[in-house]
Specification:
Layout lengths: L15 H31 L4 H37 L3 H28 L1 H7 L4 H14 L3 H16 L3 H25 L3 H27 L8 H37 L3 H17 L1 H4 L1 H14 L3 H28 L1 H7 L4 H16 L2 H15 L3 H12 L4 H41 L5
Helix pairs in contact: 1-2, 1-7, 1-8, 1-10, 1-12, 1-13, 2-3, 2-5, 2-6, 2-9, 2-10, 2-12, 3-6, 3-9, 4-5, 5-8, 6-7, 6-8, 7-8, 9-17, 9-18, 10-15, 12-13, 12-16, 13-15, 13-16, 14-15, 15-18, 16-17, 16-18, 17-18
């Protein structure tokens, strides 16, 4: 039986910093588990000590980051609509939005995955992969990409649970997925001698597990889903994609910027690509709390906006920035102290090791400004201005990435490319905070 409506909008009362910390930490465990799948693959693949295979996983990661970001954009839209309905104490509407959002997400996810799968050779070539590395990358992705709809189901299911304030059950789905991957990787890669193919199969199974475990709590504790109707889907199509369209554009800006950087780094050889790939896998795992901010803070903002509490919306934004700063400093210290063991874990030497060391220090510290952008994006999406977050994110990952990476790469090589990418984030992070505060002041409280 559903809980009373008054108990559902849990974020309109209580300490906001605590809500942010709990939601971010629990959500981050789930999100880190998704990216831990890639990190686990990288660890086991690096044990083969074959540069071409390690680089192939690096190129594949850039593309999988792109496809995962598409799913994150859809989940943000569904989360915003469901959280708003929960804030208004309308649980019937919340279930309706969840149903139609999930169906629309699956439909568009299948189409998107099919398009990416068809053009994989061309996409991998655009990233700068050639020869055997190119072929290995395409082979890996041919297996993994068709499972993308399962991951999207899991991500949207998790977003629905977080919109009800149930971060723990949302977290459980991706934890079980990561555990499945961790168990299967050594069995398939080494036990059955499948190498890269084994890593791909383990990733597919992991995504299926994530989808199943995310849906079960919704069915058991939140009334499940409504019987969909064509009229209902048409009605919600505009609402979902009014947020999802800009949110997807916002999310894919990050992997697009990463693709630019991958292309630039590829000019310095496979050792540089391998180093960037390791840093790319470490980033969302080590900084998973920051990556989770958009999805975690969104329901808090959405519920308070739905309840007409703009004072709490502003406080949520400020507290989220403070939380970001605390997390970044703590993680940077840990990574800096452990930089040598981390490099050893991936058998990193030479330029590859230099890039890992660079990440475990100044690059990580500057990630605060990316975190500020994530918080600003969550605010814009939940206050009905998703286009603003789109513009900030695209600016950060185009004119805030390419010129700086190109310029500093000319001075310091592959290290300069990564430094330039981080410097652009400082400018656009500050701009995002300023625009978000203006939006709060300009938004009237809902009746």
């Amino acid at each position: 039986m559903a809980a009373p409506a008054g108990r559902q909008a849990k974020f309109v009362e209580g300490n906001l910093f605590r809500h942010i910390a709990v939601m971010s930490l629990t959500s981050s465990v789930g999100l880190m588990a998704i990216f831990a799948v890639d990190l686990i693959n990288m660890i086991f693949i690096s044990m083969l000590e074959q540069a071409e295979i390690t680089a192939a996983v690096g190129y594949a990661g850039a593309i999988l980051f792109f496809t995962t970001s598409f799913g994150i954009g859809l989940s943000i839209a569904v989360s915003a609509l469901v959280a708003r309905a929960v804030g208004q104490r309308d649980l019937v509407m919340a279930r309706e939005k969840a149903t139609n959002g999930l169906i629309l997400g699956i439909g568009f996810g299948v189409v998107f995955s099919a398009v990416v799968w068809l053009f994989l050779p061309q996409i991998v070539s655009l990233l700068g992969a050639t020869g055997q590395t190119h072929d290995l990358t395409v082979h890996f992705l041919r297996i993994v990409i068709p499972s993308q709809p399962f991951l999207m189901v899991g991500m949207i299911g998790g977003a629905i649970l977080r919109s009800h304030g149930d971060a723990k059950r949302a977290m459980a789905a991706t934890i079980w997925g990561a555990l499945a991957n961790a168990v299967l990787d050594p069995v398939l890669i080494f036990g059955l001698d499948l190498d890269l193919t084994g890593a791909a199969i383990a990733s597919v199974v992991s995504r299926v597990v994530i989808a199943g475990v995310a849906l079960l709590p919704i069915l058991k504790h939140y009334g499940g889903f409504d019987r969909p109707t064509l009229a209902g889907l048409r009605s919600d199509l505009a609402g979902v994609f009014a947020i999802a369209g800009p949110a997807i554009l916002t999310q894919v800006a990050t992997p697009l910027g990463q693709a630019f950087v991958t292309r630039m780094v590829s000019g310095y050889g496979e050792a540089a690509v391998a180093g960037m790939a390791i840093a790319g896998r470490l980033t969302p795992v080590a900084l998973g709390v920051i990556f989770a901010l958009s999805g975690a803070v969104g329901p808090i903002i959405g519920q308070n906006y739905g309840a007409g509490r703009m004072d709490r919306v502003r406080r949520t934004f400020i507290d989220a920035l403070l939380f970001t700063a605390i997390v970044i400093v703590a993680v940077t210290v840990v990574l800096f102290v452990l930089r040598a063991p981390i490099a050893d874990l991936f058998h990193a030497e030479g330029l590859t090791r230099d890039l890992v060391y660079l990440f475990c220090g100044p690059i990580c510290l500057l990630f605060f400004f990316n975190g500020a952008i994530f918080v600003a994006n969550a605010l814009c999406n939940n206050l009905g201005k998703p286009l603003q977050s789109t513009l900030i994110n695209w600016g950060r990952h185009t004119i805030g990435t390419v010129p700086f990476a190109w310029w500093l790469g000319g001075y310091w090589g592959a290290q300069g490319v990564l430094i330039g990418q981080a410097v652009g984030g400082v400018i656009f992070g500050a701009l995002g905070v300023w625009l978000a505060l203006r939006l709060i002041d300009a938004t009237p409280a809902r009746a």
